Amino acid sequence: MRFATHLPQLTAREVLSLVPFADDVRRAAGRQRSYLVGGAVRDAFLGRSCMDFDFILADPPRVAGAVARRVGGSLVRLHEAHRTYRVALRRGGVRFYLDFAAVAPGGLAADMRARDFTINALAAGPLGEHPRLRDPCGGRADLARGVVRMISREALVRDPVRIVRAYRFAATLGFRLDRRTRRACAGLTGLFPEVAAERLGAELLLTLGARAYETPLQAMAEDGVLAALIPEFAPTVGVEQGGVHEFDVAAHSVLTAVRLAQIISRPGAFFREHADRIARYVADETTRSGLVLATLLHDIGKPERRTWGGRRWRFFGHEEHGAELAEQAVSRLRLPRRVRRQVKDLVRSHMRILPFMQTDEPTLRARRRFMRDMAPHGIGAVLLALADRRALRVTPSFDDDEAAVCRLACLLAAGEGGPASRTEDLPVNGDDLLRLGFAPGPQFKTILEAVEVQWIAGNLVTRDEALAWVRARFSGR
What is the pTM of this model? Predict the structure, then answer.
């Protein structure tokens, strides 16, 4: 957790100086009092860059239109009833959003008190000669303490997506959640059906894609928010596993996601030669959030596949069933298609990778085939496997850790720079076989499968090599 104990004592003028289009807004507003509010003020105190700026004033549509003309931006009406408008523009390759809304009927202070969290109930203005900072809810104090605190329970009721947003802010800012806020969130999850599923899904992805997601995720699980978001996860609570597992399925799943964070935060400690590749893979926030979600759901199929094997519990086929449940969950949350595919593939394959980690028997060809089949998430499969292993018990290390990590590193190497890591088609296709004089029929399949074997093994690199090999191998038949 990060606590901003040395919060800078910025003035309102200093805050507004960080807004690249504040002068344009002031000129467009004319005599109207306009205020910068919310996240931009918060981020100014935290020293975070910001591209989204919210303004409140008396006549949003007129001012937004005037600003769009002044800066050459696109004007979008966000909500007619609430009179909210957006100006989108690009400068130097960076996209900015300026949102304009009407001041609440009770004035600026009432507007601030109707917001979600104290750290967002901050304002600077009016834009012009004598701006002041407005902090009616103690937001600056909470910023200094590193706390996400609701302004009121009613604020969460008005828009239940704020329940998930509380954990998201804790994750993205590295803050902790206020106890009363957590209790309120836990007690209001029954309101989720009132919210558009894609809004909940978007907040979940932002939470899991944050660099400090571990503690907020554990809080979501403890508070019942995770199970309410993903009902398929609820049956994993209390399902004992036995054997090498010290935890039930739910606790193990959450701990696996926590161990994953430890791995991706310092990949060089585990895979020194592949640290840069891993860092590039998890640098994309959507890919990272999909990996965390797949890790969280990797054993979701176990409750319905648990059978007693005489000496211990068995979970045959839980990976296939889990992939179906995971697909059901991510589809209901309307997550992006690429995330849905990533989660389903990683959940389905998490048992298939075990032989590559447990023994030296898999051949180079087998390793390359696995990495090819998992592309573009072969790295994700390896990271999930290691996190899974490290979450079997409280102590993450085992006597054979060095061997297991070495085997996983070999798997990573098999997908680096070789034919198996390529996503394009084989170098030879049916048209090529026709041009070589082969007659269409069952022989086509035999030849192409033989080419695939050589391609995966790395014996064929170019198209010319593949054509020459086919001529030499099959022309006399």
Answer: 0.85
